[in-house]
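chain below, 293 aa
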Amino acid sequence: MEDSNFIFSSIQSFTGLKFEVIDCSSVSGGCINQCFRVRTDISKTFFVKQNEKSFFPFFETEALALKEINESQTIIVPKPIHWDKSPCTSFLVLEFIEEGSSNDTDGQRKMGEQLAAMHLVKKPFFGWTKDNCIGATPQPNPRSDDWITFYRESRLGHQISLAKQKGKKFSGAKKLMENLEFFFENYTPNPSLLHGDLWGGNKSFTKDGSPFIFDPATYYGDRETDLAFTYMFGGFSHAFYQGYQTVYPLDEGFSQRKTLYNLYHELNHFNLFGGGYANSAQSSINKLLNQIF
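prediction:
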């Protein structure tokens, strides 16, 4: 870990804890950050994310998102402990949660129930207190009273603009954005507390089988956006959706809006990784236009 002595000292100064590090080992943590498990002699283990100094605002918004989800008292997330800049890097220190192997029916059902409880946490506006990022893509979160405007401008429009900067234009995208009202004729979303990036790689289970989620791209928006993304790469069982439905049943038309909401992630994945995601996004645009016209 670069600047490790500074980081360990910073943790101690901020928390008031005194400890010796007995092990610092690299762990898997996605493709964006370097991640480490730091074990100490006081039975405290920390999870440390590290990146370039310019990445500090992203760590700050991740910490604030985890704090907000934690304060909802609905589902477990790693508690943020400290975030700062070292001489050469920026870093985020989280509670280390020991993972178990549980992914059974009961665990999946509980995860669905707890996600639904989190979605019942509301605000009177769409957006969030800060812009953040989804993966490594900046994600604007202006406050808005109107979900369609927010989704058109700050989600689809934002990603389409980023794609244009890469020289990619999606046929029919403008026409789709002009007609988003079609998908909300009989449905009015409420601003729910969202994870924002809920795919199978951002959820797990503790040693006692309790579900937990991490790496959020939080904002207040239509809860269906979280649910839609769980279908894109799999990893969530029938029990998960059953558990969700018992706490907060979905409205009619979700299957139709699911394609619209996953288009955002297809566009984002194109902007991040390129490749076949362009075809996936174009296919979704065509499918959605065929529903309208």
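Residues 75 and 114 are 5 Å apart (CA to CA). The first strand starts at residue 21 and ends at 27.
thats it, cya
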